[in-house]
Write a structure and sequence with these properties.
271 residues; alpha/beta
């Protein structure tokens, strides 16, 4: 399990989505400020095959722009504000490119799980382009990145570009045949909705040699339960609070009942 000794117990979700605009460089900086050793963020293609950080297919939820990212060139998307919908304090924050995010990670000294969000029919292309950029730009002083996806074609594309890339297989619900699927794709980690995990399943996955990563956990009691089952890492919008579940801090536990209202109730949402 090559990642067991590298992955921290808590990974900032979409940067640190309750405390800064998700999938932005500002979010990466905030994650570092709050003590994250690793962050997770989403990457997808633009119309001109550029790689940007964005979770949704469309731009409306997180920016002041409109439309699908895959139909717009990078130059257009860069004119949109990715911070104003979160808070006026972040007004003017751009949608970052993957290259900009990697540079920020190198400066901040934090690792990353990069989730591939691929438009239908563009999975292999997305995976290959992300893998190629990581090969060229990833800072050597950082731990190897973990590239994950629900999209099997995207994972296969990343693997085709770089046989040594570390892959994570995402599931909403872990199926009975999870292991042959993971083996066929050459995956190193299994990621799952925390609400669909149970102790026996976590044990089976761990006994097969795979770390288990659970998303999206914003409650310390739930995090402690998951850690007691053998879950390696949890993704959280409030990692600074959930870190208390890993350290046993009562202060963090109490704080968990007062989440930043901008976070909403994200537990169990797609990674």
């Amino acid at each position: 399990m090559p990642f067991d000794g590298l992955l921290p117990p808590v990974v900032g979700h979409r940067g640190v989505a309750a405390c800064a605009p998700e999938n932005t460089v500002a979010g990466l900086r905030k994650a570092k400020e709050l003590g994250c050793r690793w962050v997770e963020f989403d990457v997808r293609l633009t119309a001109d095959a550029q790689l940007i950080l964005l979770h949704d297919e469309r731009l409306e939820r997180t920016t002041d722009g409109q439309g699908k990212a895959i139909t717009l060139p990078l130059a257009t998307i860069r004119r949109f504000d990715a911070g104003c919908r979160f808070s006026s304090l972040f007004r003017g924050e751009p949608v970052p490119t993957l290259a900009e995010a990697v540079a920020a990670l190198g400066e901040l000294g934090i690792g990353a799980n990069i989730e591939l969000k691929a438009t239908h029919g563009r999975g292999a292309e997305t995976g290959a382009l992300v893998s190629a950029m990581l090969r060229q730009l990833w800072p050597r002083h950082l731990p190897k990145p973990l590239v994950s996806s629900f999209d099997h074609e995207a994972l296969a594309g990343a693997r085709a570009d770089n046989p040594e890339v570390m892959l994570g297989l995402l599931f909403h619900v872990v199926p009975a045949n999870w292991r042959p699927v993971a083996e066929s794709l050459g995956c190193s980690t299994i990621h799952a909705n925390h609400r669909r995990l149970h102790p026996a399943l976590v044990t089976d996955i761990r006994d097969a040699g795979y770390p288990v990563l659970a998303y999206t956990v914003n409650d310390t009691l739930r995090a402690r339960t998951l850690f007691s089952w053998g879950v390696t890492s949890v993704f959280s919008d409030v990692p600074h609070i959930i870190l208390g579940a890993a350290t046993g801090s009562d202060a963090h536990h109490l704080a968990a009942n007062h989440l930043n209202p901008t976070a909403g109730s994200r537990q169990g949402t797609a990674s």
